[in-house]
Write a structure and sequence with these properties.
Blueprint (H helix, E strand, L loop, with lengths): L2 H9 L10 E5 L2 E7 L5 E6 L12 E3 L2 E7 L6 E8 L2 E5 L6 E2 L7 E2 L11 H7 L10 E5 L15 H14 L4 E4 L3 E2 L12 E5 L6 H13 L3 E6 L3 E2 L24 E2 L4 E3 L5 H16 L5 E4 L2 H7 L3 H18 L4 E4 L21 E3 L1 H12 L6 H9 L9 E5 L9 H4 L4 H17 L3 E5 L24 H19 L9 E5 L9 E5 L1
Helix pairs in contact: 1-5, 3-4, 5-7, 6-7, 8-9, 11-12
Length: about 525
């Protein structure tokens, strides 16, 4: 690490720390670098040295430890043995590019530079992509539950490319949004409790497999958005928690460090090296994996429920400004349950600089309306109409997401019998498409998935054999096709809308060109 890299890393403005931190191939072996300022000794251990911490000690340069080890090849397992205030612990590499498959927890060496991308045309066009004036219809999915193989096992990245990409293309979606693919120990977290912020989960294969999947989407004309989790991290012993024997990535104050509701630790946004870690993770997925955007999880929690919300706000401003500058055309979406009014405002005017924010208020109002008995919807209708105007939500994503399909699916939450639910699903999807902003559906909603989303359970694809559910899937496909064929719908300032009388509780509205 040179002096400039060290300065930027410690200051908190380094967006490419992964280029010198972690494990990198060098002539004859691998070089290892890790940040552990409060350790008294650090070494690299793995299968190659019998996990003996005396074999490959690292040298300390002002809290950054490094060494080179000859003879190590790709896929070698390793951890850092760190001697802190309470003795020795074994830690996975925070900057590892690959990891063992759970329940194993070691990092693995991997040379990501060997993959040869085939999406040059897509990437060149992305630089001029304007999401505000372009059709965007997003299909959200969880890689671990979209489909399972004949033995009930997880698909590989390659098989996903063979089956998922044609399906998404056929249904007319412009983008997919992947629940977090970063390495995580517990399937039930759906990827939201991360241990490896640079490691694509090995549940479905190695990093090259994920690159092939993204390549396949791009060559089918489909963008890829990734859920990314910067607000908190899990407390598994091999991860970031108490990394060098002290609170390093989390706040040191016991009143600040825990997110009690989630059982996780809170990132210390006030620490420069932590900000560089997170900025680098975000840039990593956009640059090295060619992701087309990030959906940033739980920003409201970071802003309002974490102890130093102003530090989180400054971090998000730096994040969005930096990513927009480095990756023109990328789409940055905030998931903000707290309803921050300035999430999509320009950073120059004090906003956070996101392109879009999930319209959670609209989602809740819409589902409350369609879950109510037919005769009792008048008051809910007025509330639902209020979420439309005055067409100010052009930077919103109208999301019918995984959150709304757990612990019960959207379809089962709607009022009425099966035929009535199917009819209401058609109207809900039309309402979603007609509202300003972009649309997002979680996998299975497009055909009225009756089962709740949970890890390891795929959507009930057998429902497509039913005429009513098949017709709903065809209707969803036709809506996507209509929106793609009418790009003026994505300039909502040119439209006005009028709600019809809802004294009977019947939803009605019209749109006309302005």
């Amino acid at each position: 690490m040179d002096e400039l890299q060290s300065y930027l890393f410690r200051e908190g403005n380094c967006a490419y720390a992964y280029q010198f931190m972690g494990a990198h191939p060098v002539r004859g072996g691998y070089a290892f670098t890790v940040w552990a300022p409060n350790a008294t000794a650090v070494s690299v251990v793995g299968d190659f040295n019998g996990w003996d911490h005396t074999k490959n000690p690292m040298e300390n340069d002002n809290g950054i430890w490094s060494t080179r080890i000859a003879g190590i090849k790709q896929y070698a397992t390793y951890k850092y043995a760190i001697c802190g205030p309470n003795g020795w612990t074994l830690k996975a590499d925070p900057y590892a590019f690959h990891a063992e498959t759970r329940p194993k927890t070691a990092s693995k060496t991997f040379d990501i530079t060997k993959y040869r991308w085939k999406d040059k045309k897509w990437m060149a066009a992305r630089a001029s992509f304007n999401p505000y004036q372009s059709p965007v219809s997003i299909y959200e999915l969880h890689l671990g539950s979209w489909k399972l193989d004949e033995q009930g096992r997880l698909y590989t990245y390659e098989r996903m490319a063979d089956e998922m990409v044609p399906y998404v293309k056929q249904m007319g979606y412009t983008h997919v949004e992947l629940l977090p693919v970063m390495e995580h120990p517990f399937d039930g977290s759906w990827g939201y409790q991360v241990t490896g912020y640079f490691a694509a989960t090995s549940r479905y294969g190695d990093p090259a497999g994920l690159m092939k999947l993204i390549d396949a989407f791009h060559n089918a004309g489909i963008g890829v958005i990734l859920d990314w989790v910067p607000a908190h991290f899990c407390k598994d012993e091999h991860g970031l928690i108490d990394f060098d024997g002290t609170c390093l990535y989390e706040y040191g104050d016991p009143l600040k460090r825990e997110h009690a509701g989630w059982g996780t630790r809170v990132f210390d946004f006030g620490r420069g090296e932590v900000r560089s870690f997170l900025l680098s993770s975000a840039a990593w997925w956009l640059r090295e994996y060619h992701m087309d955007g990030l959906r940033v999880d739980a920003i409201g929690n970071a802003l309002y429920h974490c102890p130093n919300g102003w530090q989180a706000a400054e971090f998000f401003k730096t994040l969005t400004a930096g990513l927009h500058a480095r990756f023109p055309g990328c789409m940055l979406v905030a998931e903000d349950s707290a309803g921050s009014m300035n999430a999509t405002s320009d950073t120059a005017s004090g906003g956070l600089g996101f392109d879009y924010v999930w319209e959670i208020g609209w989602t809740q109002d819409a589902l409350a309306y369609f879950a109510a008995p037919f005769g009792g919807r008048s008051a809910l209708f007025r509330q639902l109409c209020g979420s439309f105007g005055p067409f100010g939500a052009v930077q919103g994503v109208n999301a019918l997401s995984h959150d709304e399909n757990h612990p019960a699916s959207i379809f089962t939450r709607l009022y009425g019998n099966v035929e009535e639910k199917l009819a209401q699903m058609r109207l809900l999807l039309l309402l979603q498409a007609a509202r300003p902003g972009k649309s997002l559906l979680f996998a299975g909603v497009e055909f009225g998935q009756p089962d709740a989303f949970t890890d390891g359970r795929e959507p009930n694809w057998a429902m497509l054999a039913d005429a009513g559910h098949r017709a709903l899937a065809d209707y969803s496909k036709a809506l996507n096709a209509f929106c793609l064929a009418h790009p003026a719908l994505y300039a909502p300032q040119s439209f006005a809308w009028t709600a019809q009388d809802a004294s009977t509780g019947v939803l009605g509205f019209t749109l006309q060109a302005g």
